[in-house]
Design goal:
The protein is α+β, with helices and mostly antiparallel strands and 238 residues long. Helix content is 27%, strand content 28%. 38% of the residues are buried.
């Protein structure tokens, strides 16, 4: 996977519908057929068979195995991108957690026990639109509680990924492209987040209307600020 720093300047060119903010992000590219791609796809196949039809993003309508493979592949790409970037910055402190129970899901664990959840979205109008448009209201999604996952544990960080490659194309695209765009700490979610009822959408696979604590991406940390937040947990950068 290739990780490339990028800066999104919302007002270049000027746009009255965009905020004045700039975001430092990391663009990730994964080429179809490479050993890493094949490894992630194999894990996605395994995960798709583990996910019950009552998992948080599928409650009332059973998805096909292919849909589960797509969802799992996208989630694992997002997780792997953040894991690789964190490890390149802090020297291998992050690792994926085994998925053994649909009621408790932690995507990344740091070696001192801190927990990170990664969630993805697939903005049809692109990453810049999702970050900058003041009316789009793309969200950094935090904790929630519903009948599907009553045991979800508190996470130290909630990180966001935005895909350029659309979900329907994930398993056929020659290059999968997505961006690590930032996130929020637990304290920020509690102190500044808002409760938002989310309805199922094709791009994020929520299959149950539920209330989530969210920070709008326009107000979330960008990637350097996420790295600072991890450093404040006691981890030393390289």
């Amino acid at each position: 996977m290739n990780l490339t720093p990028n800066t999104i300047k919302c007002q270049v060119p000027p746009n009255t519908r965009y905020s004045t903010r700039s975001f430092s992000i990391i663009q990730c590219t994964l080429v179809r057929g490479t050993p890493e791609y094949k490894s992630i796809l194999e894990r996605a196949d395994q995960l798709a068979r583990l996910v019950s039809t009552g998992a948080a993003n599928n409650a009332q309508v059973e998805r096909t195995l292919q849909r589960r493979r797509i969802d799992s592949f996208g989630g694992l790409c997002a997780e792997s991108g953040w894991e690789q970037y964190i490890n390149a910055t802090f020297n291998t402190i992050a690792s994926p957690t085994p998925f053994t129970n649909a009621s408790i899901q932690i995507d990344i664990q740091l070696n001192r026990g801190h927990r990170i959840e990664v969630r993805s979205s697939f903005p049809r109008k692109g990453v810049k639109f999702a970050l900058c448009n003041t009316n789009a209201n793309f969200k950094n999604i935090g904790p929630y509680s519903n009948s599907i996952k009553p045991g979800e544990v508190q996470k130290n960080l909630y990180l966001a990924v935005l895909f350029d490659t659309q979900k329907a194309d994930l398993l056929t695209a020659q290059t999968v492209t997505f961006s690590l765009v930032g996130g929020s700490t637990w304290d920020t979610m509690v102190d500044q987040g808002v409760n938002v009822p989310l309805t199922p959408w094709d791009d994020d696979s929520f299959a149950v209307r539920s209330t989530y604590r969210v920070i709008y991406l326009s107000n979330a940390l960008d990637v350097p600020q996420v790295i600072d937040a991890i450093g404040q947990l006691g981890y030393q950068r390289l």
